[in-house]
Amino acid sequence: MPTVSALRRRFFPGDLPAWQAFATAIGVLALAFLLALFSAAASEMGRFWLGAGAAITALGMAAWVAVAIVPKMARRTSLRWLTYQLDYHLTREGLFYLGAVSVLVLAAVNTGNNLLFLVLSCLLAGILVSGVLSRIVLSGIHLDFELPEHIFAGQAVEGRMELANEKLWLPSFSLSVSDGRSTAKSKGDPKVTEMLSRPVYFPHVAANASVIQPVKMLFPRRGAWHQEGLGISTRFPFGFIEKTRRVEWRREILVYPHVARTEMFSELLALLGGEIAGFYRGRGHELHSLRDYQQSDSVRFVSWRASARTGALKVREFAREDERRVIIALDSFSGGNASSFAGTTADDALFRERFERVVSVAASLAWHFSEVEAIAQLRTPRAATAMAPAHEMIYSALRELAIIQPESDSFVPASSESRAVDSGEVKPNGNAAGFLESLSEYPDLFKIILTGRAPASVPAILWTSSHVIFFDAL
Which listed site, 140, 259, 329, 380, has its alpha carbon 20 to 30 Å from 29? Predict the structure, then answer.
């Protein structure tokens, strides 16, 4: 047998004190109504003072409800539905319906036919009922939208959208969640774009329940996407008017650059693999093996004892004592290739398109080194990640690559310094030319440099320990 508390939760799932106050108000007002009727009857019977006393008592009871009960209920009632911002859009069906109503208005006024007036009143009542029901459907709806933590440009992701109906008794029908107020700052100047390519449809949300829908999304380009809000719309019940309720959903979504394995990138990896292996060969002290001498080998690695014993030159190979360390350096300075940064010239548009490919290559390289468990670092004129295992710094690097933009040669970071990503450390990089020169401070590290400058502007000392990729080659 259910307990009293269980019955209370079953029939009064909301605020129980509010229901008690409501019941008290209804009871007192009902008694006041009876006293008012008694007052009228007493006055007709000639009992003036009795009728006056009953009327004053009824008025006092109504005043007590207004002063004592109504404010208490108002404090416990959410009035947010009164402030909902609704946008109205007349549908094609609604336009035809209003046309038929207009024709009936003219016919009823000209003929004075009571049947036409009756039909007209029914049609007008349909419009009124449609407005009231659609408002009820949109009220009490809470939206929650979750996106994956890591999003890459050009790759489909699946989000999770939840609509919760906070109304205790009334369900909601035919709801659509749309988007039209997101801003992407991925190419310099912000432009309005849609985060949701199509509306997400919820046919039914039961009372005091929630419904979850998976949402597939595709962000076409990298950058910081600023979402200002979403819209919940409905055409329920007749489809005459589409009402849209704006819901605040402020998010900044960071979209990483596109990471891909193209044929060109595979050829680049093969080339880099050979260069890195050659650069780090013989860096250790423990003998690994002996092999035949090659023309590219240094004479100091020749094993003369083994050569004398075999009659052929033999070279010693040493085991590598430390992990291979790689610096991915993206020079975001224009090198004179971009005339402006507003996207107003054809040359600038071409440079920006090429710069986006360069950023994608840098992100793909960082992702590759994280897969092979190398130790890597990303450096740009503005920022530098820590030299760490690539799987630990990969998302710090991707966040920096998501927001990096090409800079003019005259740009100098604040106080000639650049920030360290995810760190309080600040490292000086200097101006445009100083960025490439700062890389020469690491002769023992292999560097992959992506730059839009002319080959002559690359310091000569970097050629012996670096692989340079020019923007024009991509």
Answer: 140
